[in-house]
Amino acid sequence: MKLFRDRRSTPLWRDEFAIDQADERYVNRRQFSKFLVLTSLGMLVGNVMIAVRSWLRGAPPPLPAAPVATASEIPVGAVKLFNYPTPQDPCILVRVAAERFVAYSQKCTHLSCAVYYEAAEKRLECPCHQGYFSVEDGSVLQGPPPRPLPRVVIEQRGETLVATGIETGARPGGHA
Amino acid sequence: MSAGSRPGSRGPGPALDGALALIAVLLIVQMWLLTAALESDLAGHHEVVWPAAIISAVIFAACGGLYLFVEGLDREAGRPR
Ligand code: FES
C-alpha cells in the first residue's frame, strides 16, 4: 500500500471532487432553466385547456323572461331589489328617469359584496372596498373591481318591467 | 479544466444567466396571462381565451428557444451535461 502520494500526480482534492464547483453551479442553473421551460409548458397547457373548455361549452342558453316589478311601484331615483335568473342571483333595479330603468347584478365584481344605489352621487357603491360603478352603464368608476357590473336587460311591457337576459361588459347607452 | 472555470475565460455562463433571467420574466408574464384568461372566462368574456392561448404558445416557444440556444453554446464549449 502506498502511504504517500506522488507530489507531481493530480492533487487529492481533484480526485475526490472531480467536478469543478463552478461547473456544478452552472449545471444547476441550467437544470433550473430547464425546469422553468417545463413550467412554461404547464402554463401553456393550462391556457389551452381554458380555451378548449370555453369552446366546448358553447353559447349559454337564453335566459327566461321574468317580470320583476311594475313601473308605478318605483319612483324616480328609487330602487327595487329582485333575483334573476335564479333565486341565488340578487339584482338591483334603478329608475334613473321617468322613462328609464336600469338593472344590474348586485354582486360586486371584486369580492361579491352587495352594491347599493347612492342617489346623491348617481352611482352604485360597494361598501366593502369603496368600489364605485356608473349607474348609466355599470362601468367601474373607482376602486378595486376588475370588471363592470353585469347588466340585466329590462324590457317594459305595458306597466310591467320584465328581465329578459344578462349582458356582461359595459355598453354605454344600451339601456331599456 | 473547462471553459467556464479557466482563468480569464468566462465561457457560456453569462449567456445562461441572461437566458435564465429572460425565461423567468417570460414565465411571470405567462402566469399572469393564465390567471387573466381564467378570470375573464369565468366572467363570461370568452373572446379573450384563444388569443391568450396563442400568446402563451409564443411565450413557451421563446422560452424553449432560449433554452436550446444555451444548450447549443454548451455543446460548442464542451460543458458538462
Ligand atoms: S367587494 Fe366590492 S370593492 Fe371589494
Features:
heterodimer; A: 176 residues; alpha+beta; Rieske Iron-sulfur Protein; 2 domains; six-stranded antiparallel beta sheet; 2 helices; 10 strands; elongated; disordered C terminus; B: 81 residues; mainly alpha; disordered N terminus; binds FE2/S2 (inorganic) cluster
Describe this structure in words.
The complex is a heterodimer of chains A (176) and B (81). With 176 residues, chain A is an alpha+beta fold. Chain A has helices spanning 12-16, 21-57; strands at 66-70, 79-83, 90-97, 100-105, 116-118, 123-126, 131-134, 140-142, 151-157, 160-167. Chain A folds into 2 domains: 12-57, no CATH class; 66-167, Rieske [2Fe-2S] iron-sulphur domain (Rieske Iron-sulfur Protein, 3-layer Sandwich), CATH 2.102.10.10. In chain A, the strands form 2 sheets. Chain A has a 6-stranded antiparallel sheet, with no helix packed on it. Chain A has a 4-stranded antiparallel sheet with strand order 5-6-7-8, with no helix packed on it. Chain B has a domain at 32-81. Chain B is 73% helix and 0% strand. The chains are: A alpha+beta (176), B mainly alpha (81). Chains A and B meet through helix 2 of A and helix 1 and helix 2 of B.
Largest sheet of chain B: none
In terms of quaternary structure, the protein is: heterodimer
What is the helix content of chain A? 10-25%
Largest sheet of chain A: 6 strands, antiparallel
Bound molecules: FE2/S2 (inorganic) cluster
The secondary-structure element order of chain A is HHEEEEEEEEEE
Strand order of the largest sheet of chain A: 1-10-9-4-3-2
| Strand residues, percent of chain A | 25-35%
Q: What is the structural class of chain A?
A: alpha+beta
User: What is the residue-mean pLDDT of chain B, rounded to a whole number?
Assistant: 83
